[in-house]
Design brief:
Radius of gyration: 17 Å
Helix content: over 70%
Low-confidence stretches: 1-15
Number of domains: 1
Number of strands: 0
Distance between the termini: 37 Å
Largest sheet: none
Order of helices and strands: HHHHHH
Strand content: under 5%
Number of helices: 6
Structural class: mainly alpha
Mean pLDDT: 88
Shape: globular
Length: 169
C-alpha cells in the first residue's frame, strides 16, 4: 500500500488519475471484506467434508452479494454528474454482476455448487477487467484500481480454493 511510482501515467494514450496510495480506511474495510471469502474457503479444507454444503453456500452467497456491490459501483460511475458516458454497454456491465450473482445462487441450490463457483469466478474476472479498463480510461483513480486488484485476487483465490475442494471431494 506504499505509494509506488507508476509507469502507466507516462504511457501515451493512458489517462490515469489520482494518487496510487490506497487510503487507510478503504484498505482496512476492503481487506476486512475478504474475511467472508477466506473463512469458508479455508474451513472447507480444514473440516474436509463436514458442513460442506453450508460452507459452500456461505461462499456462493457472499460472492453473489459482492458482485452486486461491484455492479453498484459501476452504476455509480455511469451516473456521475461529470461523466457523460451513459450508454447501453456501461449500464449493462453495471447490471450484469447482479444477474451473475443471482444465477450463481440459483445454480448452487438447483444444480450443483461447482457450477455456481465457476460462474462467480467468471463474474469477478470480468469485473476486474472492467475496473482495469476504467482506470486506463481515467474513470477511476489508480488507488481504487490497485485496491480492486488486491481484493479481486483475494476473492478469486478463495473461490478457486472452494471450487477445487468441491471438485476433489
Amino acid at each position: 500500500m506504499i505509494d509506488q511510482p507508476s509507469n502507466l501515467s507516462k504511457s501515451p494514450g493512458i489517462k490515469t488519475t489520482g494518487p496510487s496510495t490506497i487510503p487507510l480506511p478503504a484498505a482496512v474495510l476492503g481487506f476486512a471484506g475478504l474475511i467472508p471469502f477466506v473463512v469458508p474457503a479455508a474451513t472447507l479444507w480444514i473440516l474436509s467434508g463436514q458442513y460442506q454444503f453450508e460452507l459452500a453456500t456461505a461462499l456462493v452467497a457472499y460472492g453473489a452479494v459482492i458482485l452486486s456491490f461491484l455492479g453498484g459501483i459501476r452504476w455509480g460511475l455511469c451516473v456521475h454528474p461529470n461523466d457523460h458516458r451513459i450508454n447501453w454497454t456501461e449500464l449493462n456491465f453495471s447490471v450484469l454482476p447482479s444477474l451473475i450473482g443471482w444465477a450463481a445462487l440459483l445454480l448452487h441450490w438447483l444444480i450443483n455448487q461447482p457450477i455456481a463457483l465457476i460462474l462467480l469466478l467468471g463474474g469477478f474476472v470480468l469485473q476486474y477487467h472492467r475496473d482495469r479498463q476504467a482506470m486506463l480510461n481515467g474513470r477511476i483513480d489508480r488507488w481504487f484500481a490497485r485496491l480492486r486488484f488486491y481484493l479481486s485476487c483475494g476473492a478469486i483465490l478463495s473461490l478457486l480454493a472452494g471450487l477445487v475442494h468441491l471438485l476433489i471431494t
